[in-house]
What we know:
This protein has helices at 5-20, 26-43, 50-65, 72-91, 98-111, 128-134, 142-150, 162-177, 197-202, 228-236, 245-253, 269-275; strands spanning 137-140, 154-158, 181-186, 210-213, 239-243, 259-265, 282-288. By secondary structure, the protein is α/β, with parallel strands linked by helices. The protein folds into 2 domains: 5-65; 72-288, Uncharacterised protein PF01937, DUF89, domain 3 (Rossmann fold). It has 12 helices and 7 strands. The two termini are 33 Å apart. Residues 3-283 form the Damage-control phosphatase ARMT1-like metal-binding domain.
Amino acid sequence: MRIHPECVLCIYRTRAGEVLASNLSDEAKVEALGKLTVFYGGLVEPSSSTVVLAWKAFRKVKELLGAEDPYRYFKEQSHAAAMSVVERLAARAEGLEGYERFKYFLSLSVAANLVDPGSPMGVSPEQLLEKASSLRFARDETDRLYLTLLQSSRVTYLLDNCGEAVFDGLVLRELRRMGIQLKIVAKGAPYQNDVTHDDALRMGFQELGEVVSTGSDFPGVVPGYVSEEAVKALEWADVVISKGMANFEAFLMSPPKTAVFVAFVAKCRPIAQAARVNPGDAVAAFLRYPQGLRQSL
């Protein structure tokens, strides 16, 4: 995505916050922040891509902290919080069938997208139950997605963050129930609180479909930044379901040829503007429509 002035500060604030939250001594934090500031200042220019800028700065933070996975503890917290409420929320789908059941599970997974320390509107894992119960889509094309799925046999699903992935499991199981083959794409190495390939395997997603590694810690699936296997997973699918803002931003940077459905909460003004909603709104809409889609259920 094209960078906006506030993106520069937002990305820097997130990266500086990662240094401040670390176990380094105060003196070491000051030194690390100085090095980060110089490095970051050398990256920023009007032509910068938000995802590339955030990625390069995160790699620098990992180097400065000597930590490959700075969000490990937060990821564990998010996963535990999601696991503590998922059964209660999933039980509310009892009696729902077809489209209504699918939309409910997708809504839960998008609400869990709010558990994000790297955005202005991110919530804590403990607030998840309240948010999951009240989510409404400002842009809602879930009916078109469901119609597409009824006409599809292959779906590639791009995972986002760890707490969210617990609810993605509900969506993935519903897709399998519909007889759809799945490829499930996860990061090859840690990026913020996103699900890695190893995380996905620990969660048992290999029982639902083929778990594909991006082979990288890059925030989205963009040729040249990720594995050929991940790029081919997009081409293989009848439709791609993409979770989270970073995957959305990456597709704006490198638009795919496959039909892509994006689902996320627009946690800042630039993303909201790109998605044609207001900040804080939830989005469930096609970024690229499938060819020949019938217009209604």
